[in-house]
């Protein structure tokens, strides 16, 4: 049997660090003197100072001044609803992309898009795509479908009881809908779909959530629904769980790829050949040739969907605008298409899991609120428009990176803007 080189190299490194006497002792459990921090929602100057006392001597006064700066400490109560054990804020550089011209069902006009990132070259890349899109007349966008999922699981003794349970749920769906919707002013339970695996039933609960991303909203509503089921259902339930790990919450999943989780958004544009050549420094033919190779690579490697780097733009956009950044794990799934339209290039993206909100979550925090104001999309009435901006941003990123790789400029751009900045 052949042992791969990387396995041999890993073993060599482990052996080099291993000491017969010290390593086992170093890796053994140690319980003495362990004093965990108790979760606290209190956020004021005294509490912040108390937590920093725990960090001495590892953290210096200069470290404290960077994270717990005077402006942050003065506004500490503002953060109390969003975090526990508050010690300050981390400053992430924010760059501006724009104007990003949208011809959307919900977002229409020119938008300046703030992106929070520490990755040099990222803003420049998305800005180049936005510039090309503007030269071509703007990006067409539409929210095609929406519905945030929560999938509770119910365990029974047998398959027969699981079937009886589904029959009872179907017969009582309107009453369950009323119980769920009683917990929220804005959420609506739009579908309830059972999925049976022998003695376990997953209920796929899909909600619209107004202008909020709605993760907490659907959890609270589904908990009420499940408790009503546990109380009234005549079929004996051995156990139930608020989430059966079926919904794809903060995970890329085939279910969410097909049915969507959040807002399903498409964005598209036709780039004239002249714009591709003058603005992107390549040709339609070169972009299509690379696109075919990249699409094959996506399929052969088993990607969910086929795209270049949605996560780059979405992570920066989510952090800047107060979204749940962990949702990028599922939001950055979708399909990029590039096709010839005569001499021109048709480009589109479809993302089935855009989870953004213009209200709730972190959107009310000072910096994030300001970022939403820059977009002109803060507050009620702007959730779908925000989702369309997110999809259009991803389209611009796809256009730019495909053009850069097709033209052989990708490495040079990162050397000049990132490594050798």
UniProtKB/TrEMBL annotation:
InterPro entries: HMG_CoA_Rdtase (IPR002202), HMG_CoA_Rdtase_cat_sf (IPR023074), HMG_CoA_Rdtase_CS (IPR023076), HMG_CoA_Rdtase_eu_arc (IPR004554), HMG_CoA_Rdtase_NAD(P)-bd_sf (IPR009023), HMG_CoA_Rdtase_sub-bd_dom_sf (IPR009029). GO terms for molecular function: hydroxymethylglutaryl-CoA reductase (NADPH) activity. The keyword Zinc-finger does not apply. GO terms for biological process: coenzyme A metabolic process; isoprenoid biosynthetic process. Keywords: NADP, Oxidoreductase. Its EC number is 1.1.1.34. Gene3D superfamilies: 3-hydroxy-3-methylglutaryl-coenzyme A Reductase, Chain A, domain 2 (3.90.770.10), Hydroxymethylglutaryl-CoA reductase, class I/II, NAD/NADP-binding domain (3.30.70.420). PANTHER family: 3-HYDROXY-3-METHYLGLUTARYL-COENZYME A REDUCTASE. Belongs to the HMG-CoA reductase family. This is hydroxymethylglutaryl-CoA reductase (NADPH). It comes from Roseovarius nubinhibens (strain ATCC BAA-591 / DSM 15170 / ISM).
């Amino acid at each position: 049997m052949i042992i791969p080189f990387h396995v041999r190299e890993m073993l060599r490194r482990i052996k080099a660090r291993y000491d017969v006497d010290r390593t086992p002792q170093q890796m053994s459990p140690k319980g003495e003197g362990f004093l965990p921090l108790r979760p606290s929602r209190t956020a004021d100057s005294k509490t912040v100072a108390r937590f920093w006392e725990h960090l001495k001597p590892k953290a210096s006064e200069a470290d404290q001044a960077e994270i717990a700066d005077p402006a942050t400490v003065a506004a500490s109560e503002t953060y109390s609803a969003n975090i526990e054990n508050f010690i300050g804020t981390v400053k992430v550089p924010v760059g501006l992309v724009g104007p990003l011209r949208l011809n959307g069902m919900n977002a229409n006009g020119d938008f300046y898009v703030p992106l929070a990132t520490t990755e040099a070259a990222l803003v420049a890349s998305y800005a180049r795509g936005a510039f090309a899109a503007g030269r071509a007349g703007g990006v067409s966008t539409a929210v095609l479908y929406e519905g945030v999922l929560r999938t509770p699981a119910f365990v029974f003794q047998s398959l027969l009881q699981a079937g009886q349970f589904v029959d009872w749920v179907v017969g009582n769906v309107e009453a369950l809908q009323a119980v769920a919707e009683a917990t929220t002013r804005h959420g609506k339970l739009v579908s309830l779909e059972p999925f049976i695996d022998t003695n376990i039933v997953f209920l796929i609960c899909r909600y619209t959530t107004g202008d909020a991303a709605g993760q907490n909203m659907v959890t609270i509503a589904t908990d009420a629904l499940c408790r009503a089921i546990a109380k009234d259902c005549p079929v004996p339930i051995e156990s139930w769980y608020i989430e059966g790990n079926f919904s794809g919450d903060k995970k890329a999943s085939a279910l969410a790829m097909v049915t969507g989780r959040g807002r399903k958004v498409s964005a598209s544009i036709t780039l004239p050949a002249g714009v591709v050549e003058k603005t992107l420094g390549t040709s339609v033919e070169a972009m299509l040739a690379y696109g075919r190779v990249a699409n094959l690579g996506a399929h052969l490697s088993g990607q969910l969907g086929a795209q270049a780097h949605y996560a780059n733009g979405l992570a920066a956009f989510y952090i800047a605008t107060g979204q749940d950044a962990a949702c990028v794990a599922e939001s950055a799934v979708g399909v990029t298409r590039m096709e010839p339209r005569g001499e021109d290039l048709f480009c589109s993206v479809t993302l089935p899991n855009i989870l953004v909100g213009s209200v709730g979550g972190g959107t009310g925090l000072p910096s994030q609120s300001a970022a939403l104001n820059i977009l002109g999309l803060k507050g009620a009435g702007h959730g779908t428009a925000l989702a369309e901006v997110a999809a259009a941003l991803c389209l611009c990123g796809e256009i730019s990176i495909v053009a850069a790789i097709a033209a052989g400029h990708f490495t040079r751009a990162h050397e000049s803007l990132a490594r050798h900045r």
